[in-house]
Design a protein that fits this description.
Layout (H helix, E strand, L loop, with lengths): L7 H9 L10 E2 L2 E2 L5 H6 L2 E4 L11 H7 L11 H6 L1 H5 L10 H13 L5 E5 L7 H18 L2 E5 L3 H7 L2 E6 L2 E7 L5 H8 L2
Parallel strand pairs: 3-4, 4-5
Antiparallel strand pairs: 1-2, 6-7
Length: 197
C-alpha cells in the first residue's frame, strides 16, 4: 500500500521483469529471477493483472482469456474460470471493450489465471471500479486463493479492500517499506496517514 508515486507499480514491474532493478535480488521459489526475462518469470508461475487492466478491447472475452494460455501450452480455457466469473461465460463472444470496468477487471484476472500461476499479482485492481463491486472482488480473490492454493500480491490504495483481501500489509513511502504487519495487527489510522495526500 501507499499513495501515488511512492513506488508500488515500479516494485510490481521489477518483480515481473518489465523493469530491471539497479541493485538487489528478487527471489521466486528460491531462485533469483533478476536476470530472467518477463516471459520466463510468467512461465515459472507468476501472473500479472496490470494497472488499467490492459485487456484487448477488439478481441472477444474468450479470445482475451485464451491469450493467458500461451505460457501453459494448453488449448482450452480451464472450466473453473467461467464458474469463478459467470458473467464472462455469458459474454464470452462479446468484445472486451464493450464490458463495464468491473467486468473488464474480471476478464483481466481470468486471463491471468488461465496461465495457472502460483502467484497472482494485481496492480491497483480497484482503480476505476464502483465501490459496490470492490467488496465482491475482494470476496472473489479470497475464493480464488483458497480454491487454487495460490499466493496473491496486491498493490493498492483502498485500505478497506486491502484489509478484506490481505494476510499481511506492507506500506511503501518514498520507495521504502515503512510498515510491515499481519492484517490482524494493522492499525487503520496509522496506515491511513501514509495513504493521505
Amino acid at each position: 500500500m501507499g499513495r501515488n508515486g511512492v513506488g508500488k507499480t515500479t516494485l510490481i514491474r521489477n518483480i515481473v521483469g518489465l523493469e530491471k532493478p539497479s541493485t538487489g535480488v528478487i527471489t521466486f521459489d528460491g531462485v533469483d529471477v533478476v536476470k530472467q526475462p518477463a516471459h520466463a518469470r510468467i512461465r515459472s508461475g507468476m501472473a500479472l493483472v496490470p494497472q488499467g487492466r490492459m485487456i484487448f478491447s477488439t478481441m472477444t472475452v474468450e479470445e482475451n482469456i485464451e491469450t493467458g494460455l500461451t505460457s501453459t501450452g494448453e488449448r482450452h480455457i480451464p472450466s473453473d474460470l467461467y464458474s469463478i466469473f459467470p458473467v464472462l461465460d455469458e459474454m464470452k463472444h462479446r468484445r472486451g471493450g464493450n464490458l463495464s470496468g468491473g467486468q473488464q477487471q474480471q476478464l483481466a484476472i481470468a486471463r491471468a489465471l488461465a496461465s495457472n500461476p502460483d502467484v497472482l499479482i494485481l496492480d491497483e485492481p480497484t482503480e476505476g471500479i464502483q465501490p459496490s463491486i470492490i467488496k465482491d472482488m475482494a470476496k472473489t480473490l479470497k475464493e480464488i486463493r483458497t480454491q487454487r492454493g495460490l499466493s496473491i500480491l496486491v498493490s493498492e490504495q483502498v485500505l478497506s479492500f486491502a484489509l478484506d483481501v490481505a494476510d499481511r500489509i506492507l506500506v511503501i513511502e518514498k520507495g521504502k517499506i515503512v510498515l510491515d504487519v499481519p492484517v490482524e495487527e494493522a492499525d487503520q489510522e496509522t496506515i491511513s496517514k501514509y495513504l493521505s495526500v
